Amino acid sequence: MTVEIRVGPPTITISQGRTFMVTTQAGEIMSSTDQGVYAIDTRFLSFYRMYINQVPLQVINSSQLTFYAARYHLTNPRIETEGGIIDEQTLRITINRIVHEGIHEDIDIANYTGKSIHFIFELSMRSDFADLFEVKSKHIIQRGREQTQWDAQSRQLYTTYDNKDFHRAMRYRILSDMPVGYANGRLRIEIALAPNQRWHTCCEMILEHGQHVRKPAPGTCSQSTRDMNATQALLTSGHEQSNDFEQRQQRWQENCTEVTTSNHHIYRMYQQAVEDMGALRIYDMDVSDEAWVPAAGVPWFVTLFGRDSLTVSYQNMAVAEGFARGALKRLAEYQAQERDDERDAQPGKIMHEIRFGELAHFHKVPFTPFYATADATILYLIILSETYRWTGDVELLKTYREVTEKCLHWIDHYGDLDGDGFQEYKSFSPYHYNNVSWKDAVDAVVYADGTPVKQPKGLCELQGYVYDAKTRMAEVFAALGDQERAQTLQQEAETLKRRFNKTFWMENEGCFAFGLDPDKKQITSIASNAGQCLWSGIADQDKAERTARRLLREDMWSGWGIRTLSRDNAAYNPFAYQRGSIWPQDNGIIADGFKRYGLAQEANHVIRGIFDAIERFDGYRPPEVFAGVQRAGEIDFPILYPAGANIPQAWATGSIFHMLRTILGLRADAPHKRLYVHPTLPHWLPDITLHRLRVGPCSITLRFWRQGEQSHWEVTEVQADHGTAQEDMIQVTGEDGQETDHA
């Protein structure tokens, strides 16, 4: 008997751009939670609930229809009214919501009591205008002045928040022409319904951010909306006057690489990832219609990030390279020009995070932007190179040559704190972030006995990133005609590789050390970071093979993926953020590293574990992190991170693309008119076809299939941009040199 299990958070999140709404399954926003309506790092609505005659409603079921739309079906408990009893479950209340700048909602109430009834429908709401950082930390401090005004004529509740020159406001407006009262913090509407009669209204939440008003798309309150196909009614309701968002989203999906496969789980997983990635696009940060910026995740990371935006760009390269172009442009604009210890900035450094809420406005937090990241500057070079490899756009290298030079200078003079040739990090900011690698939790880096490692510390994956970056930059400078610089960078990379394999290797563990501590002694903990060294290519072949075997031992392998920290470590906790949990993004990088060293079976083993988990997450949407509890069997299910993870989260979503690319062994070399493939399909993925795979000036359709124990491939179509010469066409080549393959 097959048991279908779905795991997901008890909330519904809808979003578009930098506006999002987090509610209960009943569509409510409860006090003392992180639920709410947010935009630009401010919570505009902190409590929202519906009542009939002061009695709360009950949820029947609800669903997120798209990333920007949701529907909630509610009913009533037993209610006493002046005209008599309304029996339980005799009213149907349906709420349809869409996000577009603000929030538009349609509310329908149907009477199934069999008699005429009269009642008072109430909407209760409060706004705290809390900064997102305060909501996240559950430590909210009232600073400014709030004021609420009710305008009965326009049926509008207007709440403002002002703190000196910082202004936020929310208008809640009932669009239907009907009498509405306001008292005791609740909007009150008297409703009389005959048997089987329905009542309908439209409402909108208009958000003011400084002088900018985020207003929802015009909707329709016509009664005919109720009788339309349910889903179409909702999606049409807020878009009677079409907006360019829909067109942008359609163009995004049309430009993405499409996948077809007989494995319906993989197909649905991929389709959901494409939709979620479009949902995470921050439209008001777009560089152009071909260059975009991804938010890192909803709800906490809806902004431009260094590490996250760059990692997501890498993951998306075989799907759509627009994120890379956008991230490279926007991050270059914020590249540090001088030293600023308050924000942990040094010349050439790529930022970590930027915020626009009240705390950032008054410089109560350093995110204006903040530069406390040890890896974003290195990753910038890797992504620039990868974009060049997929597009062949040498103008991109010329555009960012100065940025590149500054990144390389930072790596050698600031990333290497003591001049020993290895990367270390140390916080100079009074905010003192203890860890600024991808594992940035305050307690993420520990010794084998579980005690925390003090700064400065040099983690193993940082050395690998630098090796990869300098190897790639040697290629870049060669393409720019600077052979001398290219040769120097290649020599520096090879020197680093030799020293790394000697210094970081733990012979007794058969694994690379977590890092080096302040005394340059090995941090001998077994951690997933060692696997990322294979992705970068810095590991010697024999050490890579032994590291892979070590990471797949039971103390690291959970059955759902590789844990961030060994179960044997005294600090291990499967529910901790980065001390035993599982990250899809981390596992995707590790699997790619395994495949790089010829360990295809091991790579597929990791990918299968993560994909098995994703199949069990609600809507095939992987959270950024989940618990590292051991898998008990085929009917088991993964456990969510208890403190709440971002869903959707960009690099968790992008890990799906990354892992499929790993299975197929896609490696682009557009400057030399080549796409290399090395498919190693597992038995659970017997076939897959990529449509519209973009490499250089060509759009390619590639079919892969498994026959017996062997994987095969063929090119079924190549379309080139108008004006592309025959000699500029991309040739698909197997890693063994095979030009094409036919059944």
Q: What does this 3D model show about the protein?
A:
It holds the Pfam family GDE_N_bis. Residues 460-616 form the Mannosylglycerate hydrolase MGH1-like glycoside hydrolase domain. InterPro entries: 6-hairpin_glycosidase_sf, 6hp_glycosidase-like_sf, GDE_N_bis, MGH1-like_GH. The chain has 743 residues and is an alpha+beta fold. The strands form eight sheets. Strands 7, 8, 11, 12, 14, 15, 16, 19 and 20 form a nine-stranded antiparallel β-sheet that branches. A five-stranded antiparallel β-sheet has the order 6-5-13-18-17, with no helix packed on it. The protein is globular and about 85 Å long.
Structural class: alpha+beta
Count of separate DSSP helical elements: 17
Distance between the termini: 36 Å
Low-confidence stretches: 220-231, 237-242
Mean pLDDT: 92
The main pleated sheet reads as:
9 strands, antiparallel
Count of DSSP strands: 32
Shape: globular
Q: What is the quaternary state of this protein?
A: single chain
Relative helix content: 25-40%
| Strand composition percent | 15-25%
Radius of gyration: 27 Å
